[in-house]
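Reviewers asked in the last cycle whether our approach scales beyond single polypeptides. To address this, we selected a multi-component target totalling 299 residues and predicted its structure end to end. The input consisted of the following lines:
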Amino acid sequence: MDQCKLIFAGPVGVGKTTAVAALCHGRLLTTEEDASDVTRLHKDTTTVAFDYGVIDLDGGDRLHVYGLPGQKRFDFMWEILAKDSLGLILLLDNSRSSPCADLKFYVDAFRGFIEQTGLVVGVTRTDSHPLPVLDTYRASLAALGFKSCPVFEVDPRMRENVVMMVQALLYQLAPELAG
Amino acid sequence: MRQEAFTSVLDELNGSSADIEASAVISTDGLMMASLLPVGLDEDRVGAMSAAMLSLGGRIAKELSRGDLEQVLVKGEAGYVLMTSAGQDAVLSVIAKPQARLGLILLDVKRAAEAIKNAL
Ligand SMILES: Nc1nc2c(ncn2[C@@H]2O[C@H](COP(=O)(O)OP(=O)(O)O)[C@@H](O)[C@H]2O)c(=O)[nH]1
Ligand SMILES: [Mg+2]
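The resulting structure, written as structure tokens, was:
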């Protein structure tokens, strides 16, 4: 493995663009455009194609990282970007009305892909919204058939939190690669 | 109303050439603002795809020092898709037949994009 790729998905405003930026030390390609739909309630701009960054892994490998657009109407981009990637880091926002429904929506949308690859879940905004607790997500994941999927509380602005999810995903795929 | 203004621009554009099959005005974040599309097309998807293409087109134009993006052209065996910036916040998408005379269509599209920009 010398070039590999992984993707970040999740609802609007959960912190996908923030996570890719943190991981790549702010050196990223974004496709942010002014939001005109309900996205505006969360933030002023939204990702319409993808966020992209690249980092060098310890072993000399390069990891290409893509943040997907959140809204369903961009699901054709999900398909394009998931192709040939190592796995999915799914971010969920604890401040949304039903984050477990979001979990089910994205797991179902990416099911074929993550069954072949790997899945890690990160829950954001637990600082302001402590509920649901991680065990609730674990139970939902088990019900969806992903019992051993790692789940973390993360703040996507903190690089070490994002690195932790990436390492968990790499470890899941090939324990000898994670270092 | 803004939507009526857009629709009348699209009406005129589609009427200007028999080679133009359909057209739409889309927000830069991918939502349909007005459209004269064939039935059966998924407007949400067409809107999102246009927005993604135009955004990436803008990025590559900048990366390769081509300045602000004006247009993205897609040519398939069965015809053209032309996406044109209409001001800061909108995209004009046009579908044309394979034998279309592109020069003429480009002129009409440019005029329509200007009209949409002014109606925004
Ligand atoms: N307080 C707090 N803010 C967060 C957290 N996660 C994300 N954010 C903020 O939420 C916004 C997320 O925006 P963005 O990354 O564009 O979301 P995207 O739609 O998923 O790409 C940013 O302003 C982040 O700083 C979190 O855990 N705590
Ligand atoms: Mg984003």
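The mean pLDDT of chain A is 94. We regard this as preliminary and will revisit it once experimental data from Aim 1 are available.
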